[in-house]
Amino acid sequence: MQIKNSINDNLQSSKTLRIVLAGNPNVGKSAVFSKITGTYAEISNYSGTTLENFEVKTDIGRFVDTPGIFSLGDYNEEEIIAKQIITQADIVINVVNALSLDKDLFLTQQLIDLGLPILLVLNQMDEAEKREVNINIEKLSKELEVPVFPTVAIKSQGIQEVKDNLHNARKGRKGSYIAEMLEGKELSYKNLLENEFSTENREKLYVERRKRVNEVTNKTLITKEKSNISSTVGKALLNPVIGFSVLGVVLYILYQIVGVFIAGEVVDFLENQIIGGKYIPWITGVVNQAPMPTWLNTILVGEFGLLTMTIQYVFGLLLPLIVGFYFFMAILEDSGYLPRLAVLTDRFLSKLGLNGKAIIPIILGFGCVTMAVITTRLLGSSRERTIASTILCLTIPCSAQIGLILGILAAMGSLKLWMLYLASIVITLIFIGTVLNKILAGKATPLIIDLPPMRIPVIKNVIDKTLCKTNHFLIEATPLFFIGALIITILELTNSLKSIYNFLSPLTVSLLNLPKETANIFIMGLIRRDFSAAGLSDMIGMGGKAAILSPEQTLVILVVITLFVPCIATVIVLFKERGYKEASLIWIGSITIAFALGGILATILKILPV
Amino acid sequence: MVALYEIEIGQEAEVQSFLNSDIKCYSVRFGIEEGQVVKCIAKLGAIVLQKNNQEIAIGKNLCKEIYVRLI
Question: Torsions phi, psi of B32, nearest 5?
Answer without folding.
Answer: -90, 100
